[in-house]
Amino acid sequence: MIIEDGAQLKDLKNNACLGTHPRMVNSTINFIGENNLLIFEDNITFTNSTISFKGDNAVIYLSSNCFSYEMNMVIFSHSAAYVGQNNYFNEKLNVIISEGQNFILGNQCMFSFDIWIRNSDAHLIYDATNMQRINPSKSIVIGDHVWIGQHAMILKGSVIHSGSIVGAMSVLAGKTVKSNCSWAGNPAKRIQENIFWSGESVHSWTEPMTQHYSILPHQNFVFENDGQAMDMVAFDRKLLQAASVQDKARLLLTLAANKNKNRFYGA
Fold first, then answer.
1. 2-41 b/e (C-beta count within 10 Å ≥ 16 → b)
2. Side-chain half-sphere of 28: how many Cα atoms within 13 Å?
3. For residue 125, what pLDDT is reported?
4. Which of 246, 230, 248, 228 is nearest to 238 (CA)?
5. What mean pLDDT do residues 27-35 have?
6. How much is the pLDDT for 222?
7. How far does CA 253 lie from the centroid of its chain?
């Protein structure tokens, strides 16, 4: 089914797309499998993007965005993905969601060049003393207003709380980043606590602009637990326990209806 300028929804079969069809520029949505569900909010544009369902009974929820989506996302059977509002993608974000695990992304995050998000190792690793597998796939959860630097890799089991930074070329694997912290390195380690960031770009600034922004006169990006926040890690557990793609979709719709409570926090 062609929806705009050669951009396609391929092999719909027993799969479904709900919501307002996005504007698509050099982009494709592929269904390889059955009983998958893709949910769109209003005001979505894809640019140079591919969304691929490579299995059955998976669901993706994509929120409205004042920026263009620019991503390659591959999702396999029984997994779920939720992408919040107004996230900025500087060229393609690469996401692979495997083995029935999930990916949850909050609102107003910023992704630099060539970032990979993968919630599995793809292949199996065993303990030679007892023959037990030691590398199960795990969900990845990212809160609101998180900045991921160039060439970073966010791997299975990572939890990044709101307001934090993961530096360029970092590899974050199975760690929990508390709110308003910066992490960097391979493997990534905590660099600083009690920081926040703002999204203005300094590239073309002159000295007066630099001086103007030497102090930011508000704390809008400091995230404190006010008791009203949604526990996104607990929400992931509910997704994992959901018995059907319809149950997963209902949970994602509930999450979308409470966007102002999507922030979550470290102790």
1. eeeeebebeeeeebebeeeebbbbebebebbbebbbbbbb
2. 9
3. 96
4. 248
5. 94
6. 87
7. 16
HSE-up of residue 89 (Cα within 13 Å, Cβ side)? 26
Q: Rg of the Cα trace of the chain?
A: 19
Asked if 155 contacts 139 with a C-beta cutoff of 8 angstroms, the reply is no
Tokens of 183: 């992490």
Contact 96, 79 (CB under 8 A): no
The secondary structure of 234-257 as a DSSP string is HHHHHHHH--SHHHHHHHHHHHHH
Q: Cα 212 from chain centroid?
A: 33
Question: Are 162 and 179 in contact, with CB atoms under 8 Å apart?
Answer: yes
- How many CA atoms does the CB half-sphere of 16 hold within 13 Å? 10
Please give the pLDDT value at position 218: 80
CA angle centred on 54, ends 173 and 231, rounded to 5°: 45
Across the chain, which distance is largest between two alpha carbons, in Å? 64
How much is the pLDDT for 265? Answer: 58
Number of helices (H) and strands (E) in the chain: give both, helices first: 3, 25
* pTM attached to this predicted model: 0.92
Q: How far is Cα of residue 135 from the mean position of the Cα atoms in its chain?
A: 21
Who's near 70: CB < 8 A, 6+ residues apart? 46, 47, 48, 49, 89, 91, 92, 93
Average pLDDT of the chain is: 91
| pLDDT for the residue numbered 225 | 67
Residue holding tokens 């479904």? 16
